[in-house]
Structure formats: C-alpha cells, structure tokens
C-alpha cells in the first residue's frame, strides 16, 4: 500500500526519479619513504546517482605492507550537479579515514569544484583539511591523558587535471592525471 501511494504521489506531482548504481575498483601499488619496501592496496567503491545528486562510499584493504590493519581506509563523497547558462559543473565534498597504524588515524575532509566541460578533460580544484589523531589504543599505550592527541593541517589546496583517452562517459576509459589526490590519499607539500 505504501509503495502504491508513493508511486501515485510521484505521478501526481510529475516528478522523475532516475537512479543508477555504479561500482569502481582501484589498486594502489608502490613504494614510499615509510613503506619499508613495496605496498599494495585494493579498494571497492559503490556509487549511487539520483537526479542531480551522487553518493560514493567504499573501503580500502591492505594487500601488502607494514600496516597491521587489513581494512586501512574508508571513503565517502557527496556530489551535487549545478548549472549556469552554458556550463554544468559539480560541487563535491569528501570524507576519508585512513588507519595507517595501530595507534594513529588520519582524517581528511574537504570540498571541491569539479568540471567535465570538455569530453576528454576533467579538472577539480578545492581545499582539504587533514588531522592526524592518536586513537584510544595509542592513548592507553603511551599514557596520553592530559595532552593534545591531534595535529591539524587546514586549507590545503587540492587539484586534479585529467586527460581521458576516450570521451566521457564511456564504458571503460583510461586517464592521465596531474594531481595531489586519489580516492584514499591527499598529499600536500609541507613547509
């Protein structure tokens, strides 16, 4: 009965509700100055798109590396389509948690302007806020009760410029990018 009433309401109000699910996978393989050799990570992101809104959520798993956690990241993105007279663009926000050790977490959140104006060129510009926090296990292990247990970096500039091999949208694609962000890592140069 409730479903019938909802469908009737949509018909009366003449509302359209087009929705689409999407699944993305990502593999990060590399080496850095703290990895003590190679590292590998695998991520699965599920997306849901309805009208002008999009939500993306997914975990990241460690394949190889010194990090003791199998689940070492969670990613959430919210995006809203906006329109000017001749240009469609997106405003998006992100929230990322990385567990890179047993005693510390890294939290990123931010917002960006995102454009797909050209079918083979995508760019985004925005700001990110990062915090490194000692978790409850670290507080107990190092007896940190009356001290500050977090460090924050505010208003870090983030960017992504990508050139696509095939016009967007395509069933599959390959992009070449200059960026300081990916799904689970946001890197800024430090002073």
Outline the structure in words.
Residues 8-17 have low confidence and may be disordered. The longest helix has 12 residues, at 2-13. This protein has a 9-stranded antiparallel sheet with strand order 1-2-3-4-5-6-7-8-9. With 191 residues, it is mainly beta. The chain is globular, with a radius of gyration of 20 Å. The protein has helices at 2-13, 136-141, and strands at residues 19-31, 38-50, 53-64, 71-83, 88-98, 104-118, 121-134, 150-164, 175-179.
Descriptive tags:
mainly beta, 2 helices
| Mean of residue pLDDT values | 82
Helices and strands, in N-to-C order?
Answer: HEEEEEEEHEE
Total strand count, please? 9
Number of helices: 2
Note the gap between the termini: 62 Å
Global outline: globular
Low-confidence stretches: 8-17
Proportion of residues in helical segments: under 10%
Summarize the structure.
This protein is mainly beta and 191 residues long. It has helices spanning 2-13, 136-141, and strands at residues 19-31, 38-50, 53-64, 71-83, 88-98, 104-118, 121-134, 150-164, 175-179.
């Amino acid at each position: 009965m409730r479903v019938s009433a909802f469908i009737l309401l949509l018909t009366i109000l003449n509302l359209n509700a087009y929705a689409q699910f999407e699944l993305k996978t990502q593999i990060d393989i590399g080496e850095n100055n703290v990895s003590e050799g190679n590292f590998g990570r695998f991520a699965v992101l599920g997306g849901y798109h309805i009208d002008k809104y999009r939500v993306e959520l997914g975990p990241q798993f460690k394949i190889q590396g010194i990090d003791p956690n199998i689940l070492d990241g969670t990613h959430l993105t919210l995006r809203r389509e906006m329109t000017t007279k001749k240009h469609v663009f997106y405003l998006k926000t992100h929230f990322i948690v990385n567990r890179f050790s047993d005693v510390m977490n890294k939290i990123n959140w931010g917002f960006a302007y995102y454009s797909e104006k050209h079918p083979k060129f995508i760019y985004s510009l925005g700001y990110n806020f990062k915090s490194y926090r000692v978790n409850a296990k670290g507080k107990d292990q190092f007896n940190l009760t009356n001290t500050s247990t977090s460090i924050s970096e505010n208003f870090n500039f983030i960017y992504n410029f990508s050139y696509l091999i095939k016009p967007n949208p395509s069933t599959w694609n390959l992009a070449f990018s200059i960026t300081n962000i990916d799904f689970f890592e946001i890197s800024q140069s430090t002073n």
